[in-house]
Design brief:
With about 400 residues, the protein is α+β, with helices and mostly antiparallel strands. The protein contains 10 helices and 20 strands. The structure holds zinc ion (ZN).
Length: about 400
Amino acid sequence: MAWLPTDDGIAVSAEIECGSAVEIEASPGRVSFAPGEDAVPHEVQITGPISCYNACLALRNEAAEERSVTVEVRIPPWLIEAGFDYFLRKEYLTAPLEEGGGPLPRPATDWRMIPPERQRSLDATVELDLTLGAGEALVLSSIEHYPVTTCNERLRELAAAPDARLVTIGQSVQGRPILGVEVGDADAPRRAVFTGTLQPGEPSAWAVLAMIEAAIDGRAWRDGWSLCFVPQTNPDGIFLGRCNTNARDELAAFGFEEAAAGSDFCPEEVRVLWSYLSERPPVVYVDFHFLRHPNHPFTKPYFFDPAIYDAPEVAAAAIALNERYMTLSGADRPHYVEVGHEMWRGLASYQAAAALDAVAFLYQYTGPTTSLQGAQAVGPQVMIAALEECGALG
Ligand SMILES: [Zn+2]
């Protein structure tokens, strides 16, 4: 692995799971880098989704004493010009670097916020003051990454519970298994599916793994359901530190209209997820999104116009579930999506509603006050509300 050394003993590298730093410059006491960007034209990005919020770099102190270093994140000028630099002006985190156990070193999952007094948002940069003990290695990141290898280890542990099982729903472009856990009787009358977004820059696995833990604990709301969970639908993107793309530089959250029409002109991960959804259409499907994000005012559900549903009782359940999600998020309105919307009809959740007549939501736990701990708390509540409101369907 390529570590860039400095004269004072601090070495830096982006060759870690989820690493995304580029153009790294290192001198004694100072490290500077730019965030890696998805290979998507800027003019496409500024109409959404932006893919420049994933700044992730490893630092190691190879000196025999403590060392302090200032790390500068260079915000791309086009992002500032387009008014989207807030994606990188946020609270950064660190986690220990774990070496061994995976194909590359990876961040551990005990992320800590860097105290505000050690962060500065300047004209074209963000600066962070770090102190590393002798021999200490850590990851600096703008995102609470859940590494793919760590997630797969956790899924195997969870699947050892009595009525849980590990499933491989398909493979990514680079041949990584796309793993899920199913809980409850596979032949139960009703199926529910919960996924983490195909946008790899959003660490939604935190919420979906918490749903699995709650489902394994099991309560009355679980009876009669086959519960299916896929926390990381785009593992290549997460491994490679992308924001919105897969290993073929395709925007991985879109293409479900084509997939639902039986076309192969969609990202491979989209094809895999669509076949998992459509092989036995769920009664309810929720795609969970999560990003700490200073400029999204509140967390909210994406609410598809109920005319999208064929059966009146399905539409009624969607309306009731939207009310639950509004209460849960504290939003005064959902993100309303009209039938046939040019962009949103490409989403998994839209097509689950339109083509499978499943009550379907994109739940966006994205806002200025969201947190990793919050995602772990909200995820199970999103699941339980879905099961309670859709328990009479199917
Ligand atoms: Zn999202």
